[in-house]
Amino acid sequence: MHPTSREIEKRFAPPRTDENHMALKTRISDTAADLAQLIHQTMPGSDEETEALGYLEAAVLWAHAGVDRRYVAPDEPHPSVVGLSLARFNQL
């Protein structure tokens, strides 16, 4: 699937740094750090540790990107609801 102009805008927009986004990203990072410590303690110095930590780091990066690009705070209207409302309005 090829990216749309809107998708490109989302992917290269500056990250959102409001309180809700930062709190969620901190939870993700803290949880990943706990898992990284467990991996390190159970297989220190191994190739498996290196690979696991690399993939975990990538997962955190993508999770943070998802929060920046897609997260909808509880007090924000969900984009699909806004889109439906606009579609219905255009039919009038």
Fold topology:
Elements: H1 5-12, H2 19-42, H3 47-70, H4 79-91
Short description:
The chain has 92 residues and is mainly α.
Description:
By secondary structure, this protein is mostly helical. It has one domain. Helix content is 75%, strand content 0%. The protein is built from four helices and no strands. Helix 2 packs antiparallel against helix 3. The radius of gyration is 18 Å and the shape is elongated. The two termini are 33 Å apart.
Characteristics:
mainly alpha; 4 helices; single chain; about 90 residues
Which runs of at least 5 residues are low in confidence (pLDDT < 50)? none
General shape: elongated
The number of strands is 0
Provide the succession of SSEs.
Answer: HHHH
CA-CA gap between termini: 33 Å
Largest sheet: none
Q: What portion of residues belong to β-strands?
A: under 5%
The number of domains is: 1
Q: How many DSSP H or I helices?
A: 4
Structural classification: mainly alpha
Estimated radius of gyration: 18 Å
Level of helix content? over 70%
Give the averaged pLDDT, no decimals. 80
